[in-house]
Amino acid sequence: MSPPVVEIRPATFRDALTLVLRRADREEVEALSGRDPRGVLVESVEKSSSAYAGLADGELVCLFGVVPLSLVGVTGVPWLLGSDAVCAYSRPFLRRNKTYVHEMLREFPVLRNVVDARNAVSIRWLQWLGFTLGTPQPMGASGRPFIPFSMEAKDV
């Protein structure tokens, strides 16, 4: 079996409307925001200074990007949401993710966000990328535990 053809290209509004999120990502968005994940995904693509679509063999498997925390500042909020297929194609995407994290750090010397403490796949991915994970704390619409994560350009 040949390796999948992996493509990363700029994300579109249509991508945000068509990506079917994996359950853990859907639950994370709902727990944090209390909103419909589709709307949050569209908003994330729109507000990102850079947003990308990850495809494997032509199938849309994830969207990711970085949103400025404020109009003036050095902090960006990195995000990635994927379909069930993102786990099947994790190795080819993991190899490329570090490049995009470094690009984000060139634009925003500080990257910060939170991850649902139940989202084991995302937590492992963040650790592999080199993010520092904090202590879980209740937050968001649900009050569920979320783990803050961060990275600074000086750390890489």
Strand and helix layout:
Blueprint: E1 6-10, H1 13-18, H2 23-33, H3 37-47, E2 50-56, E3 59-68, E4 75-82, H4 85-88, H5 90-107, E5 110-116, H6 120-129, E6 132-133, E7 137-139, E8 144-152
Parallel strand pairs: 4-5
Antiparallel strand pairs: 1-2, 2-3, 3-4, 5-8, 6-8, 7-8
CATH level-1 class: Alpha Beta
- The radius of gyration computed from the alpha-carbon positions, rounded to a whole number of angstroms, is 15 Å
Fourth-level CATH superfamily: Gcn5-related N-acetyltransferase (GNAT)
In CATH, the topology is named Aminopeptidase
Mean pLDDT: 92
How many beta-strand runs? 8
**Helical proportion?**
25-40%
Task: Give the CATH architecture.
Answer: 3-Layer(aba) Sandwich
What proportion of the residues form beta strands (DSSP E)? 25-35%
What count of domains describes the coordinates? 1
Task: Characterise this structure.
The protein has 156 residues and is an alpha+beta fold. It has one domain: Gcn5-related N-acetyltransferase (GNAT) (Aminopeptidase, 3-Layer(aba) Sandwich). The chain has six helices and eight strands; from the N terminus they run E-H-H-H-E-E-E-H-H-E-H-E-E-E. Strands 1, 2, 3, 4, 5, 6, 7 and 8 form an eight-stranded mixed beta sheet that branches. The longest helix is centred in the middle third of the chain and has 18 residues. The chain starts with 5 loop residues before the first strand and ends with a strand.
